[in-house]
Amino acid sequence: MSEPASAGVKTLDPTKFQDPTWTAKGERRASVALRGLTTLWFNTGTLCNLTCGHCYIESSPTNDRLAYITTSDVVPYLDEIARDGLPTREIGFTGGEPFMNPDFIAMLETTLERGFHALVLTNAMRPMMKVANALKALRERFGEMLVVRVSIDHYTQALHEIERGKNSWRPAVAGLEWLGRNGFAPRVAGRTFWGEPEAALRRGYARFFAEHGIALDANDREQLVLFPEMDATLDVPEITTACWGILHVDPASLMCASSRMVVKRKGEANAVVMPCTLIPYDDRFVMGESLAAAAEDVMLNHPHCARFCVLGGGSCSRGA
User: Fold this and answer.
1) How far apart are CA 271 and CA 265, in angstroms?
2) Chain-centre distance of CA 6, in angstroms?
3) In this structure, what are the phi and psi dihedrals at residue 258, rounded to the nearest 5 degrees?
4) DSSP 8-state secondary structure symbol assigned to residue 233
5) pLDDT tens string 90-102
6) Nearest 5°: CA angle at 160, between 7 and 205?
């Protein structure tokens, strides 16, 4: 690293994260090689029924910078995986709110029919419940190949609604309960940005799960994912090649070593591939229109690379 990890207390130094190869202090920037594409994400579009306080992708009822992706956009990538014998076993869907995409059930069904496991990130509110019967039918056909992860930012209504807005708690909890009653093995994603120790957070979620009859193990890091806070405006150390040894972090453990994300930007005819779920807009990270073109190394040239992945230990999927 080019400086001690005192991030989070001052505004990001504008000289950082500018050069893909070198840090602001002239040290060689770290990069991550793709070990094997085990998870491919699709961003279904940035429109969402909520406007959350710290949404990394700024989803809202009006943000359509990423257009609704369609089944016809998804299929060529599934074809490429099959044609090239890629090791991809999981297809992830994130948004926005995926269930607002009118083509979502169709692309989910296509994915499952191809034999992939599917992971869906949702707030489990009205958009999901509007297609509850179709979703349940997919669960009955494909069983544990379909996993739904619900965002419950904190185990208390008060802190959850600080982030997600008034009246967002009860519908989300009702959706989570519906998933549990209908044969799903739901997962939950929480946040860590209130300074509460992880052990206390997991105890709180355990009480919440017990109170609502949700069969989840709060100490299982796949069943309950706790994401670190991300704010690209706050200062964070740049990651150099020396950091791997200093921090005892294996670059193979980062998301970009095993995953990529497909997005379709508003006004563009074709979808493009980005390194991960966290960097959907930055033109510097567009890797091309095919998975083959996106196999090159990823330079860790974004604050999220440092804060979320290397220093925060975050990952959006079980594959990384």
Assistant:
1) 7
2) 25
3) -140, 5
4) T
5) 999 999 999 999 9
6) 90
